[in-house]
Amino acid sequence: QVQLVESGGGSVQAGGSLRLSCAASGDTASRRYVGWFRQSPGKGREVLAAISTGSGITYYAAAVKGRFAISQDNAKNTVYLQMNSLKPEDTAMYYCAASAARVIIWSTTQAYNYWGQGTQVTVSS
């Protein structure tokens, strides 16, 4: 079992930045991939980025590439999502998720075994 806790959300004005954290505990060896997703009211869960915790290879959705950056601190079992140039449409609940699989389709929610509770991000114009 892996437990994930997100933090770092909040309210920010358009153009601002936030850094989200996803801290893992438990069987962290099963945390082979970590992804960030978001969900707005009435919409499905949207993938943003993912990282292979072993290789450090990163993956990005086209919608956020160049604005968001995923990174990790393995010593702290923490994955980060740096979000820059935030827009009102970035307002959502942000979730991190972990997968124990060795190979995954990183952009699908079904690939991930464990999910955090989410952290709210609100961007005002």
What topology does this entry show?
Elements: E1 2-7, E2 10-13, E3 18-26, E4 33-39, E5 46-52, E6 58-60, E7 68-73, E8 78-83, E9 92-99, E10 114-115, E11 119-124
Task: Write up this protein.
The protein is mostly beta strands and 125 residues long. It contains no helices and 11 strands. The strands form 2 sheets. Strands 2, 4, 5, 6, 9, 10 and 11 form a 7-stranded mixed β-sheet that branches. It has a 4-stranded antiparallel β-sheet with strand order 1-3-8-7, with no helix packed on it.
Short description:
This protein has 125 residues and is an all-beta fold. It contains no helices and eleven strands. The mean pLDDT is 95.
| Secondary structure: number of strands | 11
Helical element count? 0
Largest sheet properties: 7 strands, mixed
Percentage of helical residues? under 10%
Oligomer: single chain
- Mean of the pLDDT scores? 95
> What is the N-to-C succession of helices and strands?
EEEEEEEEEEE
Strand content: over 45%
Radius of gyration: 13 Å
- The low-confidence parts are none
Net shape: globular
Structural class: mainly beta
Q: What is the CA–CA distance across the termini?
A: 40 Å
